[in-house]
Amino acid sequence: MFGRFPYEAEPDGAVFGPHHFYLGVLLVLLACWVVSDGDDRRPWFVAGLSVFAVFSFALTWPYYPEFGALCVLAALALATVPAVLRPLWWRTGLTVQAGLLAGLFVAWDDALSHALGWRTPLDSVWNDHLHSFVSDPQVPPGIRLPPDLEALLVEQVRHAVGVVPL
User: Fold this and answer.
1) From CA 108, how far away is CA 80, in angstroms rounded?
2) How many CB atoms within 10 Å of residue 139?
3) Distance of alpha carbon 159 from alpha carbon 166, whole angstroms
4) 14-38 per-position pLDDT tens digit
5) Where are the beta strands (DSSP E) in the chain?
């Protein structure tokens, strides 16, 4: 369970690849932006830690793996505590709270996967269900499309996801 730290010296061998870590942080930043107003700077503590986590993930981890991975996990932990415990987030709508917590979950999922080598829920869904479709796109058997449209759809999906190695 616990081997070397970090489990990957560089996340997936390409930090600027399609990591769901970035999507989670973007969702956190969107929630912080929605909650903020001109006078209240409290959500920007979470936003600043999230930006620091991105900096550590993208620009520190590849060069200093132990320090970068540790900074990512520490920044996410420090951002999660006030996001869960601060009354500011309790006063916001349920949509903002759900977006914030979903963003933190997605970021944690990818960070833990790369730092500790754990098989996380979103990685499991990707590996078990989505990767086979993306790597060999096809129209499901129950859907009937004209042959030309089916070939065009499969070809375009293959080209769209073939740009970045998954």
Assistant:
1) 10
2) 14
3) 13
4) 788 778 899 999 999 998 888 877 5
5) none
Q: For residue 135, how many other CB atoms are within 10 A of its CB?
A: 11
Cis amide linkage into residue 6, ω under 30° from 0: yes
**What is the crossing angle of helices 65-85 and 94-116, to 10°?**
160
Q: Of 52, 65, 64, nearest to 25 (Cα)? A: 52
Residue found under tokens 């601060």? 86
Decide if pLDDT at 13 tops 80: no
Q: How many residues does the chain have?
A: 166
What is the rounded distance in angstroms from the CA atom of residue 53 to the CA atom of residue 70? 10
Torsion angle of alpha carbons 114, 117, 119, 121, nearest 10°? Answer: -30
**pTM, whole model, 2 decimals?**
0.76
Which residue from 82, 20, 16, 21 is spatially nearest to 47, judged by alpha carbons? 82
Q: Which amino acid is at 89?
A: W
- Residue 155's identity, in one-letter code, is E
